[in-house]
Amino acid sequence: MNPPIVSYGLLAIELIPGQTLQRPTLAVAEAEMLGQHLVKDLQPWLAGHGGIDLALVGAAYDPVELLRPGWPLHAEIAHLLHTAPPMPDARVLCLGAHQERLPQALQPQAEYAEGPLRWLPFVLRGPADSMQAITPHLEAELLERGMAGAATALFAQSAFATAIEHARYMTLNDGLAMMAMQYQHSGLAPVWPVIETALLSPTRSAWIDQAPEPLLYFAEGTAHLALLDCHQWARMQSDAASQSAEQLERRFQQFQMRQRQIAALLQAHGIAVEFDFCADADTARNVLQA
Fold first, then answer.
1. Is the pTM of this model over 0.85?
2. CB-side exposure of 65: number of CA atoms within 13 Å?
3. What is the pLDDT of residues 59-75, one digit of tens each?
4. Domain extent listing, the chain
């Protein structure tokens, strides 16, 4: 007998500019109501395919909390769905908070609570034949046709106590593509290939190796940043001879700020970061690979 197949999705909620989420988690009864809305909205893709379970958690997360190696939030939801008591028909498992707290593995992190884009993860699980039939359609159509129903958006707006501009369903792959575009528009395009490698091909390596970006090497789950002093950094700048000491010092400070920005972003995505001191700019690449 073929084991069930899972598919990861999300309901992306974009808040009206200036708004912040007032309630990051929903109580069990609210999560169950939200689950009923999701089942109704997803019927165009699920109808006619039996035995498909849906599981969701009544919480809204920053995208970085979902886009981490191993997809920990989705994986935890899938695990809880797998261990839930079996039922003769398809199940809708809705995980809610008790006194505004979820289990630690599902609790939204307070340090990422201010973002204008919130993602609500869900998992579909069913027989191989059913899932193999619907998954290609979800990947091809959900982003374009998956606007949440008006009732769903209004319920989410009330439940999370915030004003919502858009609510749309996506596959996890759609979410990856959206974040790639957002990072490109935010001046973080050089960092995305490292994040993508850590998420999709963690056994492979990746570099950021193009000035003026900091030198970075990702391998075996860890991003290694080259830590240089001002003199060694200046040796790597092609225009250093034409710059004054004050100009170079100012640019070096900007370079260090960029290093910290990249490190913080990678760590938010659950990627370990190490700063490796490199005494010689000429051998920095060898040090990072050691």
1. yes
2. 24
3. 999 999 999 999 999 99
4. 5-185, 189-289
